[in-house]
Amino acid sequence: MDILATAMQGLLRGDATITENCGTGVCYYPSGDTTKTEPCGIYVCLFPRLTCCPGFTRALDRVNKVYYCGPLPNNSVPIQQTTCCDPEGTGLWNDWSAWSNCTADCGLCGTQTRNRTCASAAYGCPCTGNSTETRKCTHNSCENGSQCCPGTYPVKGYDGYVYCQEFPPEVCTGTWTEWTVDASVTCNDTCGMCGSIPQKRYCFPSGCQCSGGDYDGFKACGPPVCLYPRPSCCPGYVKQLNRTARTYNCVLP
User: Fold this and answer.
1) Which domain holds residue 41?
2) What is the pTM for the complete model shown?
3) Is 57 inside a domain boundary?
4) How would you label 104-138 residue by residue, b for 16+ Cβ within 10 Å and e otherwise?
5) In the chain, how many domains are there?
6) To 10 degrees, the CA torsion angle through 115, 119, 123, 128?
7) Does residue 98 belong to any structural domain of this protein?
8) Considering the domain boundaries, does residue 196 fall inside one?
9) For 182-229, what is each residue's pLDDT tens digit?
10) CA–CA separation, 47 vs 122, rounded Å?
């Protein structure tokens, strides 16, 4: 009986101790007070391992329509040993590393890099493509000197702040959003619409130009009427009865 048949018989018999399930590992057969060692684990290994261990060759069993490793039985056809490279021949890359810290803190003046390694190179499958990538970084504009480094362009974002980009800004007309007030900010007065609170609006799409006004402003606040000796309402506002709430508020005339 050849080695492959013996290994297969051992696997079927169930009295073998198997240390590998592919590529022909080692099986241990108890026999009285001694131990017999023979190759086993006839299934081919998957990438990135070699298909078969040294000394064995991948074979095709035409009857069972499976590949396995070992000395060839009579009904097998030799198959060229392979490292299971991917069909496209591009190899298998490991994941990219994290981007490095930027070499500058503003104006797209700095660069950062990341790297990757070829996982399949050690198994005879080189990778195609670059192992290093570089990009410009830190889009916020600089406060001192030029806003952006040479070769980059300043552009006003949707929030009104200036950023730097690698291509000329697009000439387009934007649209203002409604004014919004930060919910965490409180009015600086309590009555008569005498207080003010900051508000902000945005211009979309980002990089386009909106006409008529600015991104930041203030709005009057504190609608309840003031009590004596203060005037009921500050200049520009009049007292009005809110019939639903049964209270007086200050409103625009």
Assistant:
1) 3-78
2) 0.51
3) yes
4) eebbbbbebeeebebbbeebebebeeeeeeeebbb
5) 1
6) -50
7) no
8) no
9) 999 999 999 999 999 999 999 999 888 898 889 999 999 999 999 999
10) 11
